[in-house]
Amino acid sequence: MSAPLTIAIDGPSGSGKSSVSRAVARALGVGFLDTGAMYRALTWWCLERDIDLTDADAVAAAARDLPLTVGTDPDAPTVSVDGTDISQAIRTTRVSTSVSAVATNLQVRAELQQRQRDLMAQIAQETGGVVAEGRDITTVVAPDASVRVLLTASEEARLRRRSTELHGSTDAAAVEATRDQVVRRDRDDSTVSTFTEAAPGVVLVDTSDLDFDQSVAAVLAVVTAETSA
Ligand SMILES: Nc1ncnc2c1ncn2[C@@H]1O[C@H](COP(=O)(O)OP(=O)(O)O)[C@@H](O)[C@H]1O
Ligand SMILES: Nc1ccn([C@H]2C[C@H](O)[C@@H](COP(=O)(O)OP(=O)(O)O)O2)c(=O)n1
C-alpha cells in the first residue's frame, strides 16, 4: 500500500483555504480537516460557559476538556461539541470576532495542534490521505506533509470575497463591515503563526486573479508536481 497523501494548506482569512481545500480533498477522494473550525468550536464553548477569554489558564483548561468531534467528509464537514452540532453556530460574527483571543493562547495552541496531528493521522489512515487547512499546518502541525501550500490573495480580493459571502454585496458599507473579521483578525493571528510568507519548501499559490475553479486547479497542479517529483 502506498504512503498516505498528506496535504497542508495555510493562508490568511478569505484566501479560499476552506473552500479550495474541500474541493481538493473531494477531487482526490480523501478526508478534510478544517483546523480553524476547532479554534472556533473552543471559542463557542467558552462563550457558552461564560469563561473569560482573557483568562489564559481557564481557556487552556477548557481546551483540554473540550468534548469535540469533527466530521471530515469534504462534502459535509461537521463540528460537534458534547453531541451538539455547532457547524453553523461557529460561523456567527460573535465567534468570528472573539476567536483570535482564543487562538493566540499558546497553551490552547499546543493542545489543539496535538489533536490536529492525531486527527490527520487518523483521517489519512481511514481515507488514504488528508487535506488539512489553517494557519500553521505547513509550519508547525505537519511540516513533513507530502505537499505544503500557502494560499494567498490580495487584501482587496479577500475583503471582497468575505463581504460577498457574509453580506451578499461588495458595496463600501458591506466591505467595511467585513474588515474586522479579515484584516484585524489576521493581524492578531499573525502574532502566533507565520502565514503571510511561504516557509522554505512551501509552494505559494496567489489566487487574487483566479476564480474558484482556477484556484482548485492551481492547487491540484501543485499536488501533481510535488508528488511526481
Ligand atoms: N479564487 C476564488 N475566487 C473567488 N471566490 C473565492 C475564491 N476562493 C474562495 N472564494 C470564495 O471566497 C469566500 C471565502 O473563502 P473561504 O474558503 O471561506 O476562505 P478562508 O477559509 O481562507 O477564509 C467563499 O465564499 C469562497 O467560495
Ligand atoms: N491552524 C489554525 C487555524 C485557525 N487559526 C485561527 C485563526 C482564525 O482567527 C481562527 C478561525 O480560523 P478560520 O480558518 O475558520 O478563519 P477564516 O475562515 O480564515 O476566516 O482560528 C489558527 O490560529 N491556527
Automatic annotation (TrEMBL):
Catalytic reactions of this protein: dCMP + ATP = dCDP + ADP; CMP + ATP = CDP + ADP
Pfam families on file: Cytidylate_kin (PF02224)
EC number, as in UniProt: 2.7.4.25
The keyword Zinc appears for this protein: no
Binding site for ATP: 11-19
Domain Cytidylate kinase: from-to ranges: 7-223
Keywords (A to Z) from UniProt: ATP-binding, Cytoplasm, Kinase, Nucleotide-binding, Transferase
Catalytic class of the enzyme: transferase
Cellular location(s): Cytoplasm
Family from the record: Belongs to the cytidylate kinase family. Type 1 subfamily.
Protein's name according to its UniProt entry: Cytidylate kinase
Organism whose genome encodes this protein: Ornithinibacter aureus
Name of the gene this protein is made from: cmk
